């Protein structure tokens, strides 16, 4: 018994020495205690700063920590951004994930959300979503040890979109139909742009009906422009952005202020489009009203000096943005693409001019044609031929053979302007 007690004393002494030397961890009460704190914030889309736009009441979401899986637990910011972007693409109202990298503030969470909305060239995200949502609320549930040491944060974004996934499915289908109908295969970027711009300016009406109805959010969407054929400026510009990016032409939506012909200034949206090495300013909203009134475009591929009455937000005037999206110092000068417009014959059909008109502007090209003729007793057929850009063009005119000096040549008939008559005996 004494030996057993001696051994226990020795064991206790050894354990005490190990603990005092720091060889075994000391489990403190504050490290077994877990403390959770919750912070919330909200973000309203500044694009609609002139509207009385308030986030709808989502209520307070109760986060079920057991729903947090390994697949939505992140320690890398780039993974978080990619995850948020995919959730936005799916129009999920609640975006939930666990963040283990470090303690995260509401401002840091907002910064991650903003990165998910950055322009990447994907036609379905970037500006396409950035101009089609009202805002979000963010809730951060942070879990720490009793000592205050960070363990993880569960982040929830509750997003208010202007369209749902069903509506976006309709947009996807219509985008495919429209682009297919425009027959853009093999066309240059300029030709593609013109075809898409013409389509929008021809088919989308400005939505005056809902102009003062701020509860009708569809007016700001590509869905309204493409499916309902009516929207306000955001709908025009977001649809143009979507269609151009689908065809591999880079573009951005620009927001700011504009002064219209009535000298009224208000919030507005337009686009910049890349052709070649530079970007050019376009306003499909204002050009649509001109086209539908039978007028030529006035806000078509211009440099900023020529793009009058448009004043972009400060976000688009930063050194970084200007360097990333250089605006051309001059308005776009396109290569003329001519198509045959008309034939102009001389009164005696001895000569003819073929008129070719540019498909994209009023420029014309006139070429003198070679004229040949074939005669019969009663008529003469004149043929004009011209070759342009490797293609042959021809036009024919057939007229009566008016040889009045030998009426008997007509076998007893006489020709006047309204037809042939039998000669008097």
Task: Please describe what this structure looks like.
With 425 residues, this protein is of the alpha+beta class. Helix content is 28%, strand content 31%. The protein contains 11 helices and 19 strands. The strands form 6 sheets. A 5-stranded mixed sheet has the order 1-4-5-3-2. A 4-stranded antiparallel sheet has the order 10-9-8-11. Strand 16 and strand 17 form a beta hairpin. Helix 3 crosses helix 4 and helix 6 crosses helix 8. The longest helix is centred in the N-terminal third of the chain and has 19 residues. The chain starts with a helix and ends with a strand. About 4% of the residues have low confidence.
Keywords:
11 helices, elongated, single chain, alpha+beta, 425 residues, five-stranded mixed beta sheet, four-stranded antiparallel beta sheet
Summarize the SSE layout with pairings.
Elements lengths: L1 H19 L8 H4 L1 E11 L28 E2 L2 H13 L4 E6 L6 H11 L10 H4 L2 E13 L4 E12 L3 H17 L7 H15 L1 E2 L15 H7 L1 E2 L1 H14 L4 E9 L5 E11 L2 E5 L1 H9 L17 E3 L6 H6 L13 E8 L6 E7 L5 E5 L1 E6 L3 E10 L2 E10 L12 E4 L2 E4 L3
Parallel strand pairs: 2-3, 6-7
Antiparallel strand pairs: 1-4, 3-5, 4-5, 8-9, 8-11, 9-10, 12-13, 13-14, 15-16, 16-17, 18-19
Helix pairs in contact: 3-4, 6-8, 7-9, 7-10, 8-9
């Amino acid at each position: 018994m004494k030996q057993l007690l001696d051994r226990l004393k020795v064991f206790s002494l050894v354990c005490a020495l190990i603990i005092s030397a720091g060889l075994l961890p000391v489990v403190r009460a504050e490290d077994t205690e877990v403390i959770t704190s919750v912070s919330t914030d909200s973000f309203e889309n500044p694009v609609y700063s002139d509207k009385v736009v308030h986030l709808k009441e989502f209520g307070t979401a109760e986060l079920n920590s057991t729903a947090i899986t390994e697949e939505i637990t992140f320690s890398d910011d780039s993974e978080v951004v990619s995850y948020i972007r995919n959730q936005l693409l799916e129009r999920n109202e609640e975006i939930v994930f666990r963040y283990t990298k470090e303690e995260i503030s509401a401002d840091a969470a907002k910064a991650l959300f903003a990165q998910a909305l950055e322009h990447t060239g994907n036609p379905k995200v970037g500006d396409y979503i950035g101009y089609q949502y009202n805002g979000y609320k963010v809730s951060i549930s942070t879990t720490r040890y009793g000592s205050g040491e960070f363990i993880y944060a569960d982040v929830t974004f509750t997003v208010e979109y202007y369209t749902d996934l069903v509506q976006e499915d309709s947009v996807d289908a219509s985008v495919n139909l429209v682009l297919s109908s425009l027959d853009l295969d093999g066309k240059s970027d300029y030709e593609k742009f013109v075809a898409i711009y013409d389509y929008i300016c021809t088919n989308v009406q400005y939505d005056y009906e809902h102009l003062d109805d701020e509860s009708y959010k569809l007016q700001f969407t590509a869905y309204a422009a493409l499916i309902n054929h009516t929207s306000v400026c955001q709908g025009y510009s977001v649809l143009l952005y979507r269609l151009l990016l689908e065809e591999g032409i880079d573009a951005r939506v620009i927001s700011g202020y504009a002064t219209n012909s009535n000298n009224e200034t208000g919030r507005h949206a337009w686009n910049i489009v890349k052709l070649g090495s530079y970007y050019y300013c376009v306003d499909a909203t204002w050009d649509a009203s001109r086209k539908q009134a039978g007028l030529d475009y006035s806000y078509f591929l211009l440099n900023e000096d020529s793009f009058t009455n448009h004043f972009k937000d400060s976000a688009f005037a930063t050194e970084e943005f200007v360097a990333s999206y250089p605006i051309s110092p001059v308005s776009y000068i396109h290569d003329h693409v001519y198509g045959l417009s008309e034939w102009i014959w001389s009164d005696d059909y001895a000569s003819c001019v073929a008129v070719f008109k540019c498909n994209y502007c009023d420029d014309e090209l006139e070429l003198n044609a070679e004229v040949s003729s074939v005669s019969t007793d009663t008529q003469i057929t004149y043929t004009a031929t011209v070759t342009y850009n490797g293609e042959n063009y021809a036009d024919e005119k057939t007229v009566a053979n008016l040889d009045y000096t030998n009426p008997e040549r007509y076998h007893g008939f006489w020709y006047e302007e309204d037809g042939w008559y039998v000669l008097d005996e």
